[in-house]
Predict the 3D structure of the following.
Amino acid sequence: MAMRKWREILKNIAICLGILGAAVLLSIALSGVNDDNNPFAVPVFILAMALIARLTDGYVYGIAASLVGTFCVNYMFTYPFWEFDLTVTGYPLTFAMMLVVSIFISALTTQIKRQEQLRFEAEREKMRANLLRAIAHDIRTPLASILGASSALSQQSLTEADRTTLIEAIHRDASWLARVTENLLSVTRFTGQDVVLKKTDEVVEEIVGSAIVKYRRAPSALPVHVAQPETILIAPMDATLIEQVLINLFDNVSAHAGNATGIWLRISGERDRVALLVEDDGCGIPPALLPKLFDGGARARPDEGRGMGIGLSVCRTIVRAHGGELSAGNSPRGGAAFTFYLPCMEVEHA
């Protein structure tokens, strides 16, 4: 903990020194345009104060930078040069106003960042509460099914066909519970204070292929049709987590798309990002459900015992942690359509 705190302090100091150094160099360069008092120094250093306040933590660095910036303008870029002098008419008021403006910008920027952090924490707590409610409701049905089936297996009067049916039901419900547990673990991973993804450059088509292979192991798996560009798309990602996003979307089709006959996945490159579109030809998503689809407890149909929102909430959390976004709608094929984007760092031609 202490080591991390010191690293943050050193990082903030480095940001301050770097921005102030850049402001000094820029003001020196602009001084060549005007040999007299530098009229550009004050706005340059005020801009530097705003950047420092935005990129550092707390009030201290912004206020300290405001004092240093005011001194630099007076000492280096105001006549008499390389002297600290407040006796010239108008200078005291000018520098006092610069200091006040810089401190105000620093305080205002810090307050905005704190409000953003509070809003983020409130959204995170809301997601936790929604997930806990959804999981508490959803696990009861498969657990009751597993308990009932295991109890029935102890009866000697069952036929071999009945035993096979019960065993398959236990396996199906246990597999579903395993996926819920995996999703829940992913959520807890992203709701901590110090979340750092270990991203590596991955070929998007390879991650998609791996996810499809794993999805096809499920008895209820549907055919997956992939359309991909001729170019090789590479994006930084945690490969395991992005695979989980794709598998969750595929499983969602199997579980909730009704009479769907297949899944269509289209990969495309859009400037500095990769887009992945997952569609089906099932029953689609009711319009009233779309606004709360990612809350953690949504159901495709009112009579459904299992939620579809847990996996979708996890998917959006994972995609956003990668700097992307996940959205939902309905496909021209008649079913659901989910699109998510990932920042793309490199595109190679085949």
